[in-house]
What we know:
Radius of gyration: 20 Å
Helix content: 10-25%
CATH superfamily: L-amino peptidase D-ALA esterase/amidase
Strand content: 15-25%
Structural class: alpha+beta
Distance between the termini: 20 Å
CATH topology: L-amino peptidase D-ALA esterase/amidase
Number of helices: 6
CATH architecture: 4-Layer Sandwich
Mean pLDDT: 94
Number of domains: 1
Amino acid sequence: MPRYSELGLSTFTLPAGINNAITDVLGVKVGHFTLYEGDGEWRPGSGPFRTGVTVILPHGGNIYEDKVPAAVHTINGFGKVAGFEQIRELGQVETPIALTGTLNVPRVADALMTLSIEQSPHIGIGFNESGRKGYASVNPVVGETSDGFLSDIQARPIGEDEVRSAIRDASTGPVSEGVVGAGTGTSCFGWKGGIGTASRVISARFGGYTTGVLVQSNYGRPQELTIAGIPVGQQIFPPGYTPRPESGSIMIIIASDAPLNSRQLGRLCRRAAFGLARTGSTCHGGSGDFVIAFSTAYQIHDRSDSILSERPMLASEQPVIGALGLAVIESVEEAIYNSLFMARTVIGRDGNVRYGLPVEEVMKVIRRNRSDL
């Protein structure tokens, strides 16, 4: 299955990074655990399962001890994300960011707490080996979309073992997309959605920084699908599609190596909505649309002995944020396309089907509407 950039459809302005993935931001790792098990009739608590977990690690060290600046943004809040309030207050991420199915959120959050305590045994207790106080708790960050149409969501099968597996799988370089990890059971515009990623590099004039995006797509109605500015969804439709009252959700993760603080990262979070809108989303009332952004340019050591620290900062914010904003918009749009183009047809519980987007049909529609192809 081809990625969007391989089809010659691009109308983007900025160049992609070497892998066109969130891992083009130096140090960022992504890992998946995929649970694709069982067929046929739904057996509550026993499957079939089309679910999983995806983890994004800002760096390969102890994230609790060396936090990264971060921000979050809620486009529409019909969702069950965990950890957002403390990020709003403190502007930091201190665990891997995990994505999963909706009802798995508490179990995945618990797993992240367990793993953090293993790495930093002083969490919540008192003192560690160096004598620094460590009374603070840990704030696990978990995003979600619902995979209940294809999977036994009530079983909540993703927990500590699965999170450990995803973290062991985490690596830099190319990222698996489509029907994998947290995207195993999701839908997008009535087709099979999933995990998608993309990146952009801004001009050296503005610092040459890299911005990467990863999405878990699970939103939209078929007729809304827009690709490369063409209303594709008005000309092709999923076979046997039955409208559903809920309209799904999306998780958008943004990473950048630009030296941004939490406020500036918040500005990038808010730009993500423009990339989402380019694909046809109108953020329905039943949609949970959430954004998490972080910078890898510096780390914030937990309970430093020093009152002050030196950190890089932008001497001129506006032009750089403008360039990074475009990088976010283009990366979000292309990551969503990749989540669709890289997905395959999945038959889930009770025979429910989400068909893979028919790329050749999409290409025909776009060629009929674009004179440059």
